[in-house]
Every structure is written in structure tokens, then in C-alpha cells.
Amino acid sequence: MISKRFVIKRLLLLVPVLFGVATFVFAILHLAPGDPARVIAGQRASEQFVQQVRAELGLNDPIWVQYGRFLVDAVQLDFGNSYQIQKGTPVKQILRYKLPVTLEMALFGQFLGILFGIPIGLLGAIKQDALSDHVTRIGALSGISVPIYWSGPLLILLFAQILNWFPASGRVASEFDINPITGIITLDTLVRGNFAAFQSAAMHLFLPSVVIGIYSMALISRMMRSSMLEVIRQDYMRTARAKGQGSKITVMKHGFQNALIPVVTVIGIQFGTLLGGAVLTETIFGIAGIGTLLVSAIQVGDYPVVQGTVLMFAFLFTLVNLLVDVTYSYLDPRIEQ
Amino acid sequence: MSSDVEPTLRERVRRLGRALALGAALAAVAVPVLVLSGESVGFASEKIFAVGALVFGFSILGWSGSVFAGRGIENFQRHLGGRSDWSEADSRQAMAVLGSVGLGGMVGTVLATWVVAGVT
């Protein structure tokens, strides 16, 4: 049973993380060249109009006043309105539509990573130095070494262009008109009972998820193998086998749960990489998620969108790590101490 | 910065105070220097404050990251065979010092701006 005190303590740690991210993003945007008032007013606007916009946005106030105002607004999840991407629309509203797109991809990627990474790592540890171990190790090292901007186009070329098994871009075939409920399209189509649309969405999601999940899978399998090898050599494992327990049962019953602890850490840390990878993956596969939104916002100098998006990324990352901590304490209750 | 012997509270406070003063002094020098080089007080104030905030924000992130994932990273190093001298406690201490420099810079900018704006 996980204690409430432990969870509250970890939840409180979210505050400095988000405060740090907010301060960091605020500072970077104020150090970057370019005038937000000029971005809003347009390059041909008169100086008088630009000054009017500056006054309206409070950009003439001292920077520490702007910093304080930004922090107070950010606490209320008010990141202001978009300057350029969707002029005048609250950033909160834009994120509400874009976030599920990226989340869906990152979660499916992580799911594939876990689904294949753990058994591969386990196999490598149980059959150490066998042919299967060498093959999976080479596969894992390749997976860690291959960058997304290379594996993405390569998979598109093979599976979309040559074999024509999966679509190269988008989220669902254009013939389907989906009314969003959660924004996670595979879930929405299932809830609405539109299985043809679900199939189309799953097919569209497969390649981006594989691209984003390869690295995760490689790292998880390496970690699982190394952790399992360490656990297998522990005295309690030897004792269990000496008492006559079968090798497979010993590994699964006593070893697996203990070996999972460092793997769970990697899964948590890895989620941040997945979100970062989403920026590249969405660009390659033409998916309009939070990643492409961030790239476009940086390109046009839409500061409120940049701030909101980065804070959302940070919030998700810390939330996943909180889940990891909770899982930790479930796997090994001593950690709560 | 090895942490074989834990520093006392007084030692820690003194260390943070020194870092805070250093940040404030750096900002107090940087603002007038920028103004003397031909920039406006507003520009100098904005850029130096932002640099201080950058250091402050980075250190808070580093500090909380160390608390959040420090033990995990230590395990990670151990399991992947990339053992180094990095430890969660050392990282926290270093980030606290860095954060004090950043915070000092922010406070120093506010004070320096008031003084410089009053003089000019």
C-alpha cells in the first residue's frame, strides 16, 4: 500500500520543477532577439502602433514586474493568447486540442517499447552469451544509435512507399469524419464504435509509434538485461534454486519484480525523450501535435504558445516521473522510507 | 566536490550567502557597464535580469531534477557500467550555489536599475 504522505511529498516536488521551467523559458524568450509587439503589429506597422501594442501587452513595465505577472498567470494556467499561430486564441485552448495528439503517439511508442523491450532484455539475461543474446544486444545498440530523423524517412520509404502497408502521414483517412471526445483518435473511434475508422487511425499511428518507440525499446531491453543479470546472481536466487524451485519460476517469481526497479526509472526518464522525439516525429509524419506547434511557434516568435507548450511538456514529464516513483514504492516498499 | 563530510547548516548558509552576493555584485557591475556602452537602462535591465533568471531557473531545474531522479540516475550509471563520481547530494549542493548566484543577479539588477535610472 502506497502512503499518502509519500505521494504528497512527491507532488510538492512538482512545484519547484514547474517554477524552474517557467523561469527558464521566461528568461530565454527575453534574451532571444525580436520584439513581440512588432510580431503582433506586423513588419509594416507604424512605430506608434507598435508602441500601443507594447503598452497593451505590458511590455513597457520593468522586467521583474513582467516576470511576476507571468508567474501569477502561469499558476492559473493562463498563458495568454497566441500572437501568430491562431491569433487571439487562448493558448490553453490550443493546447487542449494539440496535446492529445502527441500524448497518443508518445504513449503508443512507450507501449511498444515496453512490450518488446522487457521480454527481449529478459531473454538476453536468461540466455546470456547465446546467439539470441548477441542478436538482441546488436539490435538494442543499433536502436540506441539510430536517430529519429533517419529511421523515420527510412520506415516511410520501406513501409509506405515500397511495400504500401502503412500510410506515410496524417492521423486517419480523410473519408472519416471524427467528432473528438478526448482528442485521442484511437480511443474516440472505439468509443463511438466506428471500427473502420479505428483501424485506419491505428494504421496511421503505427509507423510514428515504431519510430518513437525504437529507442525506448532498445534502452529498456539493455537495462532489463543488465538488471536481471545482477539479480540472478543474488544469494536469494541461489537459495530459491537450491531449495528445488525451477529456474523459470525463480526468475519470474523472485527475480523479475526486483529487476524491474531500474527499468521503471528508465521508462520514466525515457518519457521525456519521447516527448522531445515527438517534435521530430510529428514533423516527419505530418502530424499536427504539440511538437509541430512548438516548432511553428518558435519560427514565428509566438512567445505565449512557446511558453505554454514548454510548460505543458515539463508538467507531463514530471507527472510521469511521479507515477514512476509511485510504481517504485509499489515494487519495493522500502523506497518510501 | 566530494561529500564525504556533510557541511553544517551554518557552512551551507554562508556558502549560499557568498554566492548570492557574487551574483548581486556581477549584476551591479553589468548594468552600468551596458548603459555606459550606449544601451538604454531598460535594455540593460532586461538582459541582465534575464541572464540571472536563466541561471536561477536552470539551477532550480537541476536541483529538483536531482531530487526527483538522482537515485534513478545513480542506478542507471551503475547498471549501464558508466560509473562516475556524480551523486545526487553533490548535484543538489552545486545547484543550490548556482541558484543563489542567479537569484543574486536578479536582485542585483533591480537595485542597480534603480540606482542607474536615478543617476541618469
Description:
The complex is a heterodimer of chains A (337) and B (120). Chain A is mainly alpha-helical. In chain A, 76% of the residues lie in helices and 0% in strands. Chain A is built from 13 helices and no strands. In chain A, helix 5 packs antiparallel against helix 6 (131-145) and helix 6 (131-145) packs across helix 9 (195-232). In chain B, helix 1 packs parallel to helix 3 (88-119). Classes of the chains: A mainly alpha (337), B mainly alpha (120). The interface between A and B is medium-sized, with 34 and 34 residues.
Task: Lay out the secondary structure.
The complex is a heterodimer of chains A (337) and B (120).
Chain A: H1 4-31, H2 36-41, H3 47-57, H4 63-75, H5 91-126, H6 131-145, H7 148-162, H8 185-191, H9 195-232, H10 235-242, H11 247-285, H12 290-300, H13 303-331
Helix pairs in contact in A: 1-4, 1-13, 5-6, 5-9, 5-11, 5-13, 6-9, 7-9, 7-11, 8-9, 9-11, 10-11, 11-12, 11-13, 12-13
Chain B: H1 9-36, H2 41-79, H3 88-119
Helix pairs in contact in B: 1-2, 1-3, 2-3
Described by the principal axes of the CA atoms, the overall outline of chain A is globular
Proportion of strand residues of chain A: under 5%
- From the alpha-carbon coordinates, what is the Rg of chain A to the nearest angstrom? 24 Å
Radius of gyration based on Cα positions of chain B: 18 Å
Q: How many strands, what sense, and barrel or not for the largest sheet of chain B? A: none
Say how many strands of chain B there are.
Answer: 0
Oligomerization status of the protein chains: heterodimer
Largest sheet of chain A: none
The N- and C-terminal alpha carbons of chain A lie at a distance of 13 Å
Percent strand of chain B equals under 5%
- Helical content of chain B (DSSP H or I, runs of 4+): over 70%
- How many strand segments of chain A? 0
**Helix/sheet category of chain A:** mainly alpha
Sequence of secondary-structure elements of chain B: HHH
- Average pLDDT over all residues of chain A: 85
Shape of chain B: elongated
Low-confidence spans of chain A: pLDDT under 50, at least 5 residues? none
Low confidence ranges of chain B: none
Distance between the termini of chain B: 44 Å
**Main interface: chain pair and counts:** A-B, 34 and 34 residues
